[in-house]
Write a structure and sequence with these properties.
172 residues, alpha/beta, 6-stranded mixed beta sheet, 6 helices, 39% helix
Length: 172
């Protein structure tokens, strides 16, 4: 499983702090559901990557050092997720959070379709209607998820953490 968190420039300040807190909770819950959890911090490209077999404290350490900068281009993170997760057995999941519209929506959509066709589940959370709508197009068809939209900045931590609920549906 890979937790993919948007660290673009618009995430600076309190939003990034909320995302880090939510990521920490998510990772702890994913470990409790017996998932190996990696991390992708992304903006114009992949800023940081920690593989799923890493120890939880290493993943959290990288998450806590996240810095916000750059634009919102998801395709690099999606391609990394496809490349990495195809090597793993069992339930393979990309959990993606963003606070904005994607600069590369068409390319990201094509990669998400490829991932879904390969059996990689995609769970998304977007801050606000615009981000949630853009990300909802990427979620795999047939997977019901009523919590894709995070309404405001105060809900970012719990919104990211709530993606772990979707993990227990299949077990690790």
């Amino acid at each position: 499983m890979l937790l993919c968190i948007d660290v673009s420039g618009s995430m600076s300040g309190g939003l990034l702090s909320q995302a880090i807190a939510g990521g920490e909770q998510f990772l702890a819950e994913a470990e409790g559901a017996h998932y190996e959890s990696g991390l992708v911090l992304w903006s114009d490209g992949v800023q940081e990557y920690v593989p799923p077999e890493a120890q939880l404290d290493e993943v959290i350490s990288v998450l806590q050092k996240a810095k916000a900068a750059g634009g919102t281009v998801l395709s690099h993170a999606l391609q990394l997720g496809i490349d990495v997760l195809t090597e793993y057995p069992g339930d393979r999941v990309l959990c993606i959070f963003s606070d904005g519209a994607l600069a590369d929506h068409e390319k990201a959509s094509a990669l998400a379709q490829k991932a879904c066709s390969m059996g990689i589940r995609i769970i998304v959370r977007g801050l606000g209607r615009k981000a949630a709508s853009a990300l909802a197009d990427l979620a795999c068809p047939g997977v019901r998820d009523d919590d894709q939209q995070i309404d405001d900045a105060a809900g970012v931590a719990s919104g990211i953490a709530s993606m772990a609920t979707g993990l227990s549906v299949r077990g690790g």
